[in-house]
Amino acid sequence: MPTQQITNGVPPVVEPKLPPRPPEPDDQEVRALAVKQIERKRKFQMRAFAGAVISAFLVVVWAISEYNNAGGWPTNGFSNSSSIPHVWNDWIIYPLIGIGLCVAIDAWNTYRRKPITEAEIKREMDRLTGAH
């Protein structure tokens, strides 16, 4: 065991042991996170664009089929049955709502969800090992 030496009549200052701090993110880690987020945003934009194209295609198919089934434009409104003259079936709302919900959930996951933090990782590791 090392002994403390007194120099000039003053004992040396002993630094208290501090708990280890989480590692500071360096520039490479921050850059990697930024690149990952940019990739997530670009993928979302492609999926949102695909959803818009699919929706537009479905609306065109719906309009053509309902125009032919109803014998013209919807002068008497919309209904849930087919083959009524000048009344269009409103089935198009269901796939459009589904696509819209999928895009909204994807947008939330892309822009609002936070990355996993070191504190969350430590908390989960403590939970799994039973440490408190």
Explained architecture:
The chain is mainly alpha-helical and 132 residues long. 57% of the residues lie in helices and 3% in strands. The protein is built from three helices and two strands, in the order H-E-E-H-H. The protein has helices at 27-70, 93-111, 118-129; strands at residues 78-79, 88-89. A two-stranded parallel sheet has the order 1-2.
Topology of helices and strands:
Elements (H helix, E strand, L loop, with lengths): L26 H44 L7 E2 L8 E2 L3 H19 L6 H12 L3
Parallel strand pairs: 1-2
Helix pairs in contact: 1-2
What would the keywords be for this entry?
mainly alpha
- How far the N terminus sits from the C terminus, by CA atoms, comes to 33 Å
Largest sheet descriptor: 2 strands, parallel
Number of separate strands: 2
Given the C-alpha coordinates, what overall shape results? rod-shaped
Quick summary:
With 132 residues, the protein is mainly alpha-helical. It contains 3 helices and 2 strands, in the order αββαα.
